[in-house]
Design brief:
Elements (H helix, E strand, L loop, with lengths): L2 H5 L8 E2 L3 E10 L2 E8 L4 E8 L7 H19 L9 E7 L2 E7 L3 E3 H8 L4 H20 L2 E2 L8 E4 L8 E3 L6 E2 L20 H4 L6 H17 L10 H9 L2 E3 L8 H7 L10 H13 L42 E3 L30 H38 L1
Antiparallel strand pairs: 1-2, 2-3, 3-4, 4-6, 5-6, 7-9, 8-11, 9-10, 12-13
Helix pairs in contact: 4-6, 4-9, 6-8
Length: 399
């Protein structure tokens, strides 16, 4: 008896999907279904297949909406062929249910990386932001609004030849301008902590709201929490978002101006995604262009893929989070509108691009040299103090 006969209609390892995709193991789970690692037996390659939550037990109308949403995700993702976007290969039909067949990208999400690093340096964040903005620029050009940009939907390859490469994923609630509205349009979808203010107020998501959500995501990985803070009360959080009550950034340094432009409360004054891409690329490369970053891994200031991106670096307890303190600022203004995006200072002006590779022990010896010279420096300071005291005494007695 085969494994498939043993499992019957159940889904599990060794199940042959649509007569072609052999399931291996579950690699992700969520409210909209599960993601499996599978083997494409026709092309002999690994793929990721997304199993949408079963429509069994749903009424006919709701089940059809779930199926249509899945097909819409497949259609939208299939329009994109960008190096920094997860590729869509196929929509497989199994027992009348659609499964999405995608590029298998061994990675950890930016949200998982934050559990390890807490916050990331502006240089690394600028690279990530520029690459994701490049993929989203192509999506916008194709008439697709992502609508759910957040750290959990940005993936960083954590092994192999792709180590450090960044990709945007999950176009599950993305909408193309050509899509026909459905009955769910009046429901706010997405993640409130990364909403644009106008979306929290009930407006339809647009390309401009994607720009704001990207800014919120980059802010979060730099500052350690979303710009509107963390609140278990989703309604209270939505009210803060609607009023643009964000915490003033404190760790973004010279990247602050770019972030504030992306987080401009007025959508008509925000940069386009292409402008955001160029500004972030210039900040990441010290004035260079996005061409220097496309299909390249993220580099630290030392010229290597950061430790947090490596699979061998174990994730820490996800519950250990430091909360940003300080008062909120309602309607925090953007930077001066007459400041060209390309003139925003680089967060790492002292580094060339690509970052220089470490030179070995010479770099590591700087701290040792400082420690070695510390006693001599202390002796010199004491001598100066004693000499000053002697001069004071002499002046007192000779007066």
């Amino acid at each position: 008896m085969t494994a498939q006969e043993q499992t019957g209609r159940g889904i599990g390892p060794e199940y042959l999907l649509a007569g072609r995709y052999r399931l291996r193991s579950k690699i992700g789970d969520g409210g909209m279904g599960a993601v499996w690692l599978a083997r494409d037996t026709l092309l002999s390659r690994d793929v990721a297949v997304k199993q949408v939550t079963s429509t069994e037990g749903l009424d006919t109308e709701t089940a059809e909406e779930v199926r249509e949403r899945t097909l819409r995700e497949g259609r939208n993702a299939a329009k994109l062929t960008h190096p920094h976007s997860i590729a869509m290969y196929d929509v497989a039909i199994e027992s009348g249910e659609p499964w999405l067949v995608m590029e298998y990208f061994p990675a950890r999400s930016l949200a998982q990386a934050m559990n390890l690093a807490d916050t990331l340096p502006p240089l690394e964040v600028a690279q990530i932001g520029a690459q994701i903005a490049a993929a989203l620029t192509e999506a916008h050009a194709a008439g697709i609004v992502h609508r759910d940009i957040k750290p959990g939907n940005i993936l960083i390859a954590d092994r192999g030849k792709s180590l450090g490469t960044v990709k945007i994923s999950d176009f599950g609630i993305a909408r193309a301008k050509s899509d026909v509205s459905d009955t769910q349009d009046e429901v706010i979808t997405g993640t409130p902590a990364y909403f644009a203010p106008e979306v929290a107020r009930g407006d339809d998501p647009t390309e401009a709201s994607d720009v704001f959500s990207l800014g919120s995501t980059l802010y979060t990985v730099i500052e350690g929490q979303p710009p509107f803070g963390i609140d278990s009360d989703a309604i209270a959080l939505l009210h803060r978002v609607a009023k643009a009550e964000i915490y003033r950034p404190t760790k973004s340094g010279p990247l602050t101006d770019v972030l504030l432009q992306l987080l401009e409360p007025d959508p008509t004054r925000r940069p386009t995604m292409a402008q955001a891409r160029d500004a972030l690329a210039a900040a990441a490369t010290g004035g260079g262009t996005i061409d220097q970053l496309i299909d390249a891994p993220v580099y630290s200031s030392e010229g290597a893929v950061p430790a947090w991106a490596h699979r061998t670096t174990q994730l820490a307890d996800p519950h250990r989070r430091n909360r940003l303190t300080g008062s909120t600022v309602t309607g925090l203004p953007a930077v001066q509108q007459n400041t060209p995006l390309r003139n925003v200072p680089s967060p790492m002006d002292m580094f060339s691009w690509p970052p220089r590779m470490p030179t070995g022990p010479a770099d590591a010896s700087t701290r040792d040299k400082v420690v070695a010279w510390a006693p001599l420096a202390m002796t010199g300071m004491v001598a100066v103090i004693v000499l000053a005291a002697l001069i004071v005494v002499i002046l007192v007695f000779t007066a």
